[in-house]
Specification:
- The chain is built from no helices and 8 strands.
- The protein has about 80 residues and is an all-beta fold.
C-alpha cells in the first residue's frame, strides 16, 4: 500500500489517499473541536462512488467531494 495526496488545511483537517491493488482509500481526520457539515475536499483522487465502513454512500464529481465531519473525528472511504 502506498500513500499519495497529503493535505492539511487551516481548519485542522488532514486528508490523504492510500492505494493498493485491492482499491483506493481516502482518510480524512478532523483535529479540531469544530464539526463540519458539507466539508468540501478538492483535488479528490477519483470521481465515482465511494463508501464508508458503515455503508454510507458518497459520490465524487469533478474531483470534489462534500462530507460531514464530527469534531475530532475520522472518515475512511473506499472506492467501489
Amino acid at each position: 500500500m502506498q500513500s499519495n495526496s497529503l493535505a492539511l488545511d487551516d481548519h485542522k483537517v488532514l486528508t490523504f489517499v492510500r492505494w493498493a491493488e485491492t482499491g483506493d482509500r481516502m482518510i480524512t481526520l478532523n483535529f479540531s473541536e469544530q464539526p463540519y457539515e458539507n466539508y468540501s475536499i478538492s483535488s479528490f483522487p477519483a470521481d465515482g462512488n465511494w463508501r464508508s465502513w458503515m455503508g454510507e454512500q458518497f459520490e465524487a464529481k469533478d474531483h470534489q467531494l462534500a462530507i460531514d465531519l464530527f469534531s475530532f473525528g475520522a472518515l475512511i472511504l473506499t472506492q467501489e
